[in-house]
Amino acid sequence: MNRLAFITIASFVLFGWFTLCDAQVQLVGIVKVTQGDAFIVRQDNVLKAETNMPIKAGDRLRTGGSGKMGLVFEDDTVVSLGPGSEFVVEDFLFEPLDNKFSFVARLYRGIMSFISGQIAKLAKETVRIETPHATVGLRGTHILVKVED
Amino acid sequence: MRVFAGLQSLLICAMIAGGCAAKTVVVLVPDPNGEIGVVSVSNEKGSVSLKDANQATEVKAGAVSPSEPWILPKDKIESLFRDVIALQVPPPEHFLLYFESNSIQLKPESKETFGKVLDEIAKRDSKSISVVGHSDTAGNKAYNLELSRKRASAVVNLLIERGIASEFMKSTSHGEENPLVETGDHVSEPRNRRVEVIIR
């Protein structure tokens, strides 16, 4: 119980700290739509996802049993997550001027609609979605994925 | 934590007679423009390609390759993916603003477009706006990079004047590197003298 109280307090302290630090970390996209339970797990902090909240590489996006989330990325990729989903943006690089591109994400469970954007257009074979059972290489544009565990 | 979750699912698997139904299903569907892309689905046992509308493959946990692709009927897609299909996520909106030659002055017709930019920002309460400056190839590269940077910051300033917070904007400049219309070097091309505004 004491441990739980400590974790609770620590998360509040850290939450404030990360909010302050937001401006320094490069964002890869934003949350554009949420319904029901939808969260961003950043390091060990669980943030309730809200419209226009920034997403960073490494963020774990999680929805509850009735939750949904719509994400829009810097390169125009649009991702919708259905209930009971867990999705992580592992690597995102969109620097057209330097010709640097990467989009690697992992869907641990749940259902997802993925509409690729500029990265898939400009750098073929760079958009990759991993699931516990398969590697999905997307050259464009719209796929639906369901992971049952 | 993760080890615990792993053990837990292992236990659940062990409890269910006949093993787990763990699997991934991937379906290629037409995008909002009606276009069909290409996707490869692979595991350590093999790889398949999906190229046709509503083509699907299933990858089961364990030592089997992805299934031969088949066409998943529309009603089946609808029932499997209802939740994500129904979620309306507005795709980013792109606008192009054009400039006078060797200038950070907007062309008259782009002043009208600028009004549309403001409307769209308001409509979707956008807090993520990219402003990307470009130039044509007249003049040298370094000069053009600077010119495109000035164009982008001119647009950022116009948006700030109209009450858009600077923290919601990200401005970059591409100089002459990403022309809308390919030309040779040292070519004056009005369509390349532009700033792209992306509203999310």
For the biggest β-sheet of chain B, the strand order reads 6-9-7-8
Largest sheet of chain A: 12 strands, mixed
N- to C-terminal distance of chain B = 35 Å
Total strand segments of chain A: 12
Quantity of strands of chain B, as a count: 9
Could you name the ranges of chain A where pLDDT drops below 50 across 5 or more consecutive residues? 16-24
Q: Could you estimate the helical fraction of the residues of chain A in percent?
A: 10-25%
Poorly predicted runs of chain B: 10-19
Q: Return the string of H and E elements of chain B.
A: HEEEEEHEHEHEE
Specify Rg of chain A, calculated over alpha carbons: 16 Å
Oligomer: heterodimer
| Largest β sheet strand count, sense and barrel closure of chain B | 4 strands, mixed
| Rg value of chain B | 25 Å
Q: Report the helical percentage of chain B.
A: 25-40%
Strand share of the residues of chain A? over 45%
Tally of separate helices of chain B? 4
List keywords for this structure.
heterodimer, A: 149 residues, alpha+beta, 51% strand, B: 200 residues, three-stranded antiparallel β-sheet, 9 strands
Please render the helix and strand layout as text:
The complex is a heterodimer of chains A (149) and B (200).
Chain A: H1 2-21, E1 27-35, E2 38-42, E3 45-48, E4 54-56, E5 60-63, E6 68-73, E7 78-81, E8 86-95, E9 100-115, H2 118-122, E10 127-130, E11 135-138, E12 142-148
Parallel strand pairs in A: 9-10
Antiparallel strand pairs in A: 1-4, 1-6, 2-3, 2-5, 5-8, 6-7, 7-9, 8-9, 9-12, 10-11
Chain B: H1 2-15, E1 23-28, E2 39-43, E3 46-50, E4 55-60, E5 70-71, H2 74-86, E6 93-98, H3 108-123, E7 129-133, H4 141-161, E8 169-173, E9 194-199
Parallel strand pairs in B: 7-8
Antiparallel strand pairs in B: 1-4, 2-3, 4-5, 6-9, 7-9
Written overview of the protein:
The complex is a heterodimer of chains A (149) and B (200). Chain A is of the alpha+beta class. Helix content of chain A is 17%, strand content 51%. Chain A has helices at residues 2-21, 118-122, and strands at 27-35, 38-42, 45-48, 54-56, 60-63, 68-73, 78-81, 86-95, 100-115, 127-130, 135-138, 142-148. The two termini of chain A are 31 Å apart. Residues 16-24 of chain A have low confidence and may be disordered. Chain B has 200 residues and is an alpha+beta fold. Chain B has a four-stranded mixed beta sheet. The longest helix of chain B has 21 residues, at 141-161.
